[in-house]
């Protein structure tokens, strides 16, 4: 998936610049965790929905979009910097962390910094056996001023979109909505 001139995402063939309007069912089954018990009509309907909204899903960090409509601000209750030591990781996990950080840097999601704030990373094992890097923000969160925001109930939103059972397979995919952080809070 790549951004076009209108800043919309298009699914493109890896070997050419041709825009793909439909994804083969085999690729859908490879890229998404689809309930193996789905058969016939239900599976066909799921493939149609995934094809229709293929541009909404990211398969790598570079494909994750962001919004420029709002910037996130972080208000702290303390002026003392939060500087945590990194957790010790085995060599194999350090390699995964380094690769993940390099991917995030290449995608422009994170940047190099010499800040007085630092939080350690941990690797969390996913159901499929792979590991996902997470940042342990507990100490920073402890001094972050809480902001109350009304959010629509999740199950109501899903039901408005499509049958709950089918959408559930999609919403469990790793998905990171991106919001820019205000320059004063970086």
Structure description:
By secondary structure, the chain is α+β, with helices and mostly antiparallel strands. The chain folds into two domains: 1-75 and 163-186, no CATH class; 76-146, HIV Type 1 Reverse Transcriptase, subunit A, domain 1 (HIV Type 1 Reverse Transcriptase, Chain A, domain 1). Helices cover 31% and strands 12% of the residues. The protein contains six helices and six strands, in the order ββααβαββαααβ. A hairpin with a 5-residue loop joins strand 1 and strand 2 (9-10). Mean pLDDT is 74; it is low at 1-11 and 158-177.
Which key features would you list for this structure?
alpha+beta; HIV Type 1 Reverse Transcriptase, Chain A, domain 1; two-stranded antiparallel sheet; 6 helices; extended
């Amino acid at each position: 998936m790549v951004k076009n001139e209108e800043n919309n995402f298009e699914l493109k063939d890896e070997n050419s610049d041709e825009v793909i309007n439909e994804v083969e069912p085999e690729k859908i089954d490879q890229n998404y965790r689809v309930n193996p018990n789905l058969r016939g009509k239900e599976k066909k309907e799921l493939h149609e929905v995934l094809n229709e909204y293929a541009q909404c899903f990211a398969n790598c960090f570079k494909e994750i979009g962001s919004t420029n409509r709002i910037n996130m601000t972080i208000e702290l209750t303390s002026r003392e910097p939060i500087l945590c030591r990194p957790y010790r990781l085995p060599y194999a996990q350090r390699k995964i962390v380094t690769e993940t950080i390099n991917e995030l840097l290449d995608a422009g999601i994170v940047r190099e910094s010499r800040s007085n704030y630092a939080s350690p990373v941990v690797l969390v094992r996913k159901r499929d056996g792979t590991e996902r890097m997470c940042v342990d923000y507990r100490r920073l969160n402890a001094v972050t001023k809480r902001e109350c925001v009304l959010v629509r109930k999740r199950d109501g939103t899903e039901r408005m979109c499509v049958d709950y059972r089918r959408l559930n397979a999609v919403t469990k995919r790793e998905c990171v909505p991106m919001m820019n952080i205000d320059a004063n809070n970086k």
